[in-house]
Specification:
15 strands; alpha/beta; 3-stranded mixed sheet; L-arginine/glycine Amidinotransferase, Chain A; 6 helices
């Protein structure tokens, strides 16, 4: 498995925020946490392609929002925040030798953080960053490859993957307050602890689940379900509305 990451921008303190109040963000600590995250990906067997930081693109560490990578192709996104659209081209250059490329051309928008692929089903959050026109375009792109695209209404959070992520084959970690579980099909679910609403964000890598140390009650639920959890401190990056999924693009 390959993981594409990008170093933390020195401008991350000017990141886009939708659901959080702006806090003072410690750049050195954010970079240290990101290094630990990359090192964990490597320990879990990923070949990491670490890209240099983009000093003029505050949110660019969150590479997941720029693309959807499937076995057959990669789709370059059109982020909902105009300030983030300049992040896409450099990721496209990295992906071009690895996958055939398609692109959300607009006028619709889709953030990669709103796209959850589970087998041949692709769920796309209708959020403040991704709209119905973007979902329609993604549907047209993926249909010839045998994927079914399902829009999912998201409430109270930034992206679909704030509310639902894959933690094992056909098992999802969810916050049912932010989505309707029934929109995600007949699957096994683990619910984030109600006192940890942001705890539904996790990365499934091999036999492990990367999960933030900020959510110990949710971690206990994952472990009770028989899952191996690899905790990582992502608390500083969370001030920029980022989760552990946001910081990598995985090519399986």
């Amino acid at each position: 498995m390959m993981a594409i990451t990008r170093d933390v921008s020195e401008a991350i303190g000017q990141c886009e925020l939708t659901h959080l109040e702006r806090e003072l963000l410690d750049l050195d600590r954010a970079r240290s946490q990101h290094r630990e995250y990359v090192e964990l990906l490597e320990r879990l067997g990923c070949e990491v392609r670490a890209l240099p930081s983009e000093p003029d693109l505050p949110d660019s560490v969150f590479v997941e929002d720029t693309a959807l990578v499937l076995d057959e192709l990669a789709v370059l996104m059109r982020p909902g925040a105009v300030s983030r659209r300049a992040e896409v081209e450099s990721i496209g250059l990295v992906l071009e030798p690895l996958r055939p490329l398609a692109r959300i051309g607009g006028p619709g928008t889709v953030d990669g953080g709103d796209v959850l692929a589970v087998g041949r089903d692709v769920y796309v959050g209708l959020s403040s960053r991704s709209d119905a026109a973007g979902v329609e375009e993604l549907t047209r792109i993926l249909a010839p490859h045998g994927y079914a695209v399902h829009p999912v209404r998201v409430r109270g959070c930034l992206h679909l993957k704030s509310a639902a992520t894959v933690v094992a084959p056909d098992t999802l970690l969810v916050n049912p307050d932010w989505i309707d579980r029934g929109d995600l099909g007949s699957r096994a679910f683990v619910e984030a602890h109600p006192e940890e609403p942001f705890g539904a964000n996790a990365v499934h890598v091999g036999e492990a689940v990367i999960h933030s140390t900020a959510f110990p009650r949710t971690r206990a639920r994952l472990e009770a379900a028989g899952l191996r959890v690899e905790p990582v401190d992502a608390t500083e990056l969370a001030k920029a509305e980022g989760g552990v999924t946001c910081c990598s693009l995985l090519l399986r």
